[in-house]
Amino acid sequence: MKNSVGINALSVHRNNKLIADAEKNQLIEGIEKVGFFSGADLFRRNILELPKMLGELFPKVGLVLLAGSSDTGKSIFARDLILSLVLNKNEFIGFSFSEQLSRKAIIVCTEDDDLAISYLIRKQLKNQPEDLIIRSLESLYFIFDADNLIGKLENILVCQQIDIIKIDTLGDLVNDIKDNGEVRHVLSSMKRLATTYQCLILLMHHTNKRTESLIPNKSNVQGAGGLEQKCRLVLELRNDVFDGNLKHLSVLKGNYLGLEFKGSSFVLECDPLTLTFSNTGRRVLFDDLIHSRDSHVSESKKVLQNYDAIDKDLLKVLLKSIFVKFGNGLLRSQLKPLLAEGLRNSFDLDQSPGMNKVSDLITRLQIDKILSNPEEESLRGKAAIINLNPDTELN
């Protein structure tokens, strides 16, 4: 009798434990569905490295921001990436595609229409066999109307395993790109899609004006701070100063990237005929991007590095125009700003030359007898006027 009672008690205990375990599992599943996970569950997943889509550069899941000015070719770059993916290529710009990919993608176009995209993808695929193109493009979907975009994307994602969604451009999805609350709301919806359906969303965006003269930095990205904070990876694409076919791809933020990806750009080449990108294998330090740009600006704007090299006939013409307009006989303090402004206009400088350099130039012109020298006549103060020598003639 005692054994029977003991067995029944043990059976009840086991049943209660099974029920408790089942309820616990149901509770855990319910918690996970609403976004809560236990630390033990996360640890038991045994994830030793984060899943990647393209080499170590692009993650498999999350938000990536690609920024640049309007003429850098960032849309062409992103489209070339996606076409390489659906064409089942092994790599893009020297980084290998992951083997665990469905090779399907979505492109959302808010700037180009279907006619423009039809032309552009044909140009980018001109060297590919047509049967391969048709077969591959069945895995690429386009959306040209951004109204109810999240709903449209989810309708595709529930029935298709998509690797990457390109949004071109992010600015068209918000009323005010500087409104941090609105930006974070839109990006939160995008992040939910990426996490739920295990895909990458590539957001195309603009940098602030004139930031190509600055060192690549995430602060160059246009809009609210919440923009880059929500993205795991932020990239910038900018033109090379000297070669229009070269582009610099820079990592501005990479939460899970090593230092070897940061601080220097990847130098890419864009084929102007096929609009496809390749990696030159070169890297350029961010500081050198600015130094080379400054050097180029000096050359293109003819910034005066050596005042001795200025053509004397040009100076004579410039001085004659000054003295005709303001009268012969100017104080050095009067002549300096007039000559500086004349040099700026003649050489298309960014700003007028420094007064010390202009004063030195006036002294040399006096030595060359192009301008009179009051000191030779022992004149001082207000009487120390400078004239254009009457015998100054153009050669």
Structure at a glance:
The chain is an alpha/beta fold and 395 residues long. It folds into three domains: 2-44, no CATH class; 52-297, Rossmann fold; 307-386.
Structural class: alpha/beta
Unreliable residue stretches: 295-303, 378-383
Helix tally equals: 12
- In the sheet with the most strands, the strands line up as 7-6-8-9-3-10-11-12-13
Instruction: Give a count of the beta strands, DSSP E runs of length 2 or more.
Output: 15
Give the name of the CATH superfamily of the largest domain: P-loop containing nucleotide triphosphate hydrolases
Distance from N terminus to C terminus (CA atoms, Å) equals: 132 Å
* SSE string, helices as H and strands as E: HHEEEHEEEHHEHEHEHEEEEHHEHHE
Q: CATH architecture of the largest domain, please?
A: 3-Layer(aba) Sandwich
Instruction: Give the overall pLDDT as a whole number.
Output: 81
| Radius of gyration (Å) | 33 Å
- The helix content is 40-55%
Q: What is the total number of structural domains?
A: 3
Relative strand content: 15-25%
Could you explain the architecture of this structure?
Helix content is 40%, strand content 18%. It has 12 helices and 15 strands. Helix 11 packs across helix 12 (355-367). The longest helix is centred in the first third of the chain and has 32 residues, at 2-33. Strand 4 and strand 5 (95-96) form a beta hairpin. It folds into 3 domains: 2-44, no CATH class; 52-297, P-loop containing nucleotide triphosphate hydrolases (Rossmann fold, 3-Layer(aba) Sandwich), CATH 3.40.50.300; 307-386. The strands form 4 sheets. The chain has a 9-stranded mixed sheet. The protein has a two-stranded antiparallel ribbon with strand order 1-2. Strands 4-5 form a two-stranded antiparallel ribbon.
